[in-house]
Each structure stands twice: as C-alpha cells, then as structure tokens.
Amino acid sequence: MDISSLMRPRKICLCKGVSRQDIADAVRGGADTFRKLIEKTQATTGCGTCYHEVYAAFREEKEKLLAEKTDQLKLNF
Q: What is the rounded CA–CA span in Å between residue 12 and residue 16?
C-alpha cells in the first residue's frame, strides 16, 4: 500500500482537485444527478479524462446513500 494514499485523499479529477470524498459529500449534499454533481464539484470540466471514473464513483455513492435510506425505512417487528 502506498503510504501517501493514507495521508491525503487521492484525486479522481486532477484538473479540479476533486477526490472521492468530495463526490460522496456532493451526493449527500443533494447532487442527485450527474449534472448536479458536476455543477457542485466542477469534476470532468477540465481535460475530461476522468469522466468515467467520476461517473462510476457518483453511481456508487448514490447506491450507498439509497441503501442507507432503505435500511432506515425497514421496520423491525
């Protein structure tokens, strides 16, 4: 394991300095569409080579949030 990855978050979008945590925070903050995520973070608006990785992270974070909400709605009898 690379020790530097433990010290600071790896940037998914280098041009705009957007990390995975930034994407998670944006999704939790209301970015429920990819367009809203881009508006909040500016990810993918530089060179664009990170588009697929940012989109994958966005979908994963949305799925996590949905799973958390679904678990909260379950009633235990």
A: 9
Domains held by the chain: number: 1
Contact 23, 54 (CB under 8 A): yes
- The span from the CA of 59 to the CA of 66, in Å, is 10
Structure tokens at 5: 């990855």
pTM of the model: 0.82
Residue 67 CA, distance from chain mean position: 15
Tokens of 10: 């790896």
Q: What does the block give as tokens for 35?
A: 């367009």
Task: Give every CB contact of residue 14 below 8 A, 6+ residues apart in sequence.
Answer: 46, 50
Percent pLDDT > 90 in the chain is 74
CATH number for the domain spanning 63: value is 1.10.10.1100
